[in-house]
What does this fold into?
Amino acid sequence: MAKMKGIVPVGDCKVQVREFEIPEPKDDEVLVEVKCSGICGSDVNTFRMSWEQINERQNLVVSHEAGGVVQKVGKNVENISVGDRVCIYHYLGCGKCKYCLEGKYGWCEDKEAYGWHFNGSAREYLIAKAVNCCPLPEELPFEDAAFMACSAGTAYASLKKLDSFAADGYLTVMGLGPIGMVCSLMAAAKGWNVLACDLSETRVKFAEGLGIHVIQSNGDSPLSEQIKDAMDGRLPIRIMDTTGHPSGLADAVEIAENGAHIVTIGKGRRKYLMSDRFDISEVVVKELVIQGSWVFTLPEYYEMMEFMVEHKLSFNNLVTGRYSFDEAQEAFEAVADMNNAGKTVFIKK
It folds into this structure.
C-alpha cells in the first residue's frame, strides 16, 4: 500500500517523522489530502511531556487543525465530492445524543478527537467523517483552515457570548497568543475598539504590526491605570481572557469595570487553579459575570465561515512559521520558544 508521513511526539521535546499506510475511507468517510496542519498550544504541551506523561496518546500522530482537499469518498457520502476544499472539525461524537444533535460534539460522553483518541492531522492524509468535513471557500487559504479548526472557531464562539452584552464599544483582550490575536482581529471586524494586553515584547510588537492597539503589562505602572489612559479614563466592561493562566484571569478581575462581563478561554495541561491574587470580593462587589468558553459547535463553524468571507477576513498574516513535515522537530522547537509569536503550520505543496 502507498505510504504517507506523520509526526509523532516521543517525549521530552522530541518528535519523529514516521511512515504510515494511507488509509481507505469507510462508507460514511472521506480521505483528505492535508494541505495545512497547525500546531496548537495543546500540541506544544504534549511536545514538552515525558513519554510516560503522553500516556494513552503514545504513538499517535499529533495535531487537530487541518485543511485539505478530498481525494476519495465513501459510498454513502453524498454532500462531498472529490476535489472539494475542506476544513476538518476536530471532535467526533456518537451522533445520537442531545449534544451531538445540537452540533456540540465536545460535550458528547463518547466524544473522540484527532491527536487524542486516534491519529491526528499532522500527516499527509487523514480520514474524516463526512459530517466533519466543513467547506473551505476559495477566498480563504488553507492556512486559514488551521485557525478555523480550533483557535478561530473558539474565538468566534467566545465573542458571541459578549455580542448582546451592554457595552461601550470596547473589548479588552488579555493575552496575545494565537487565540488572543484572532479574537482581536475578529472583534475589530465587528467594529469594536480593541485594546489588548500581553507581557511579551515579541507578541506586543507583532500585534502592533497588525494594527492592534496593545499595552505591554510590564509592571511599570498598574495595568488598570494604563488601560484608563487608553480608554479616556474608563475601565473595560467587556473582557476576553485568552491567557489560560491564573494571573491572566486575576488581572481581568482587577481591571474590570462594575458590572463587567469576562469570558475566559483556554487552560494548560495541569489543573487550572485560581491565583492567590484572585479576590472573590471584587466579583461580588463589582457584580461581575465570569463565563467560561470551550471550543465551538459544528454549526458555529458555518457562521464563522460566512463572517470571514463577508468581512474579507483572513488570518494568513498570523502565520510566522511554515514547515514541511520533514522539518517537524525544527517546527516544534520554534513554536515552543517562549519568544514565539503568531502561528506555526505544516504545509504540503
Notes: Residues 3-150+296-347 form a domain with the Quinone Oxidoreductase; Chain A, domain 1 fold (CATH 3.90.180.10). The chain has two domains: 3-150+296-347, 156-293. The chain has a mean pLDDT of 93.
